Amino acid sequence: MIDLNKFQISQEKEEKVLKIIKKHKIFLFLYVLYATILLFFIPIFLILYEEFFFTESSFLYLINPDLPIILFGIYILTISFMIFNFWIDFALDVRIITNFRIISTEQKSLFSRKMSQVYLDNIEDVSGTQDGFFAHIFNFGDILIQTAAEKNMFKWHNIPKPFWTTEYILDLHRDFYKNHNDSINNLKK
Fold it and tell me: Which of 38-47, 68-77, 82-91, 117-126 has the lowest mean pLDDT?
C-alpha cells in the first residue's frame, strides 16, 4: 500500500491510493535528447570560436586569455542546472487517484510547487484529448477534469493513456455515488 505521507499529503481514514499518474516517459527522453544536443553541439561552436576568432592578437585574448575556459564552465553549469530542473519537473509532477479524491501536485520550478485536490463527489465531467501525430503514436494526451469545487478545472498535460484514465476516473465517480447513495438509503430506512 502506498502512503500519501510520502508525498507530504495527509491521508484520510480508510483512504487507499488506487493509481499514481506521471507525465509520459517520452518527455523524459525528449529532455535527455535536448540536453545531449546542448552538451555536444554547442561546445563544438566554442572550440571553433577559440580556433578562429580567439587568437593572440584579438581584443578578447588581451582581456583574459582563459575566457573560453570560463565561458565553457558557465555553459556546463547552466546545462547541468537545466537538466536538474527537467528531472525535478518530471519526477515531482504527480497525480494521485484515491478512493475518495484526486490529488494533483505540479512542480512549477525548483522552488515553486502547486497542489490541488478534488473529492470524487465534486467531479462533474472528465475529458481527454490527443492532439498530433506523436500523441497518437505514443498514446499520451491531456485530461480536463471539471468540478463543482472552488477550483473548477483541473488540466493535466502529457498524461499516458488519457482515454483510459478518463474512463477510470468516471468509473470511480460512478462507484462513489453508488456506494454513497446506498449508505444514504440505509440511513433513511
Answer: 38-47
Q: Provide φ and ψ at 83, rounded to 5°.
A: -65, -45
**174 belongs to a structural domain:** no
Q: Are 119 and 100 in contact (CB under 8 A)?
A: yes
CB neighbour class for 51 (10 Å; exposed up to 12, middle 13-18, buried from 19):
exposed
DSSP H/E element including 106:
strand 101-109
pLDDT of residue 164: 95
> Does residue 61 register a pLDDT over 60?
yes
Question: Is residue 149 classed as helix, strand or coil in its secondary structure?
Answer: coil
Per-residue pLDDT at 57:
63
Residue 184, pLDDT above cutoff 60:
no
3-state secondary structure of 140: strand
Cell of 135: 500523441
Contact 15, 99 (CB under 8 A): yes
**Per-residue pLDDT band at 138 (split at 50, 70, 90):** very high
Q: Is the pTM of this model over 0.85?
A: no
Q: How many CB atoms lie within 10 A of CB 99?
A: 15
80 domain residue, yes or no: yes
Angle (CA) 111-96-104 rounded to 5° is 40
Q: Which domain holds residue 76?
A: 29-88
